[in-house]
Design a protein that fits this description.
By secondary structure, this protein is an alpha+beta fold. The protein contains 7 helices and 6 strands, in the order H-H-H-H-H-E-E-E-E-H-H-E-E. The strands form 2 sheets. It has a 4-stranded antiparallel beta sheet with strand order 1-2-3-4. Strands 5-6 form a two-stranded antiparallel sheet. Strand 2 and strand 3 form a beta hairpin. The radius of gyration is 57 Å and the shape is flat. The protein starts with 14 loop residues before the first helix and ends with a strand.
Length: about 270
């Protein structure tokens, strides 16, 4: 009974027959490849066997003439060198009278000896001279300068000019403190004579300028002074007692942190 579902798809009847058919086709393909002929002729041309094309006689003739010219020049140069060596040296010929070469040879020799002795004396004097500069003294002076510099950096001096010659300072107005404010928040009580106590002196950069800051308090209000040495201007700010106590409690009494909150707006000193 015929297989209607695979009509036209069965080429061989079994696997061994399929392998045999494939090998037969492959061998035929390999034989056809071996017997194929190129469409382009890759053989050497017939003119390559001609002698006059393989050898350039004109170039060989030019090279031979050049070598002959070089040999001729070398022979000429060798002949000239030989003749020059056979001739006597005119510069070695001495005059028969043997006259002295110099009339003041003795005087020049004595002058050279004197100069040499003077140089030796100066060298001995330089080597035996003690140095004027003392390196140990320089080191001691440098250590003292370091101590002075450290003291100046720790406790900077705020220089001020008299009011008649300095630029006007800026003083910010404040409202009077309300009555009945307690003064027992850790501040020192005000002196009877109104003296103020400095709680901070240091240099700090505010914005693009460097200022020398001074914080002074009388137990209630806080006076802040910032001096600009370039323009010789002093900016002042008075912090009221209520604000002073609030900052003191917030920052645990560290006035350097209060100074970090300062900024300069034009010609005014502002505490954020």
């Amino acid at each position: 009974m015929a297989d209607r579902g695979r009509v036209g798809s069965l080429v061989v009847g079994c696997k061994s027959a399929a392998n045999k058919e494939w090998r037969k086709s492959h061998e035929g393909h390999r034989q056809r490849i071996k017997s194929v002929q190129p469409s382009t002729d890759m053989a050497a041309p017939a003119t390559s066997g001609l002698v006059h094309l393989r050898t350039n006689l004109k170039r060989e003739r030019l090279l031979e003439e050049r070598y002959m010219e070089i040999d001729r020049e070398n022979q000429s140069l060798l002949k000239k060198m030989s003749e020059a060596m056979k001739k006597p040296n005119p510069y070695l010929k001495l005059s028969p009278d043997h006259k002295p070469t110099s009339l003041n040879r003795t005087g020049r020799k004595a002058e050279l000896i004197r100069i040499t002795q003077e140089n030796q004396r100066m060298l001995k004097a330089i080597q035996s001279t003690k140095p004027v500069y003392d390196a140990r003294r320089w080191e001691d002076s440098y250590r003292k300068s370091e101590v002075h510099l450290k003291n100046c950096c720790s406790y900077p001096v705020v220089t001020r000019l008299p009011k008649v010659s300095s630029s006007p300072s800026v003083l910010m107005s404040i409202d009077p403190e309300p009555a009945g404010v307690s003064q027992s928040d850790g501040f020192a009580a005000a002196d009877p004579d109104g003296d103020r106590k400095f709680v901070l002196k240091e240099g700090m950069r505010l914005g693009d300028k460097y200022f020398l800051l001074e914080f002074a308090t009388d137990g209630r209000s806080l006076n802040i002074s910032a001096y600009d040495g370039d323009t010789q201007t002093t900016l002042e700010l008075v912090v009221k007692e209520k604000r002073h106590r609030q900052l003191y409690r917030e920052l645990n009494g560290d006035y350097s942190l209060i100074a970090a909150r300062l900024r300069v707006d034009g010609d005014r000193l502002i505490l954020d």
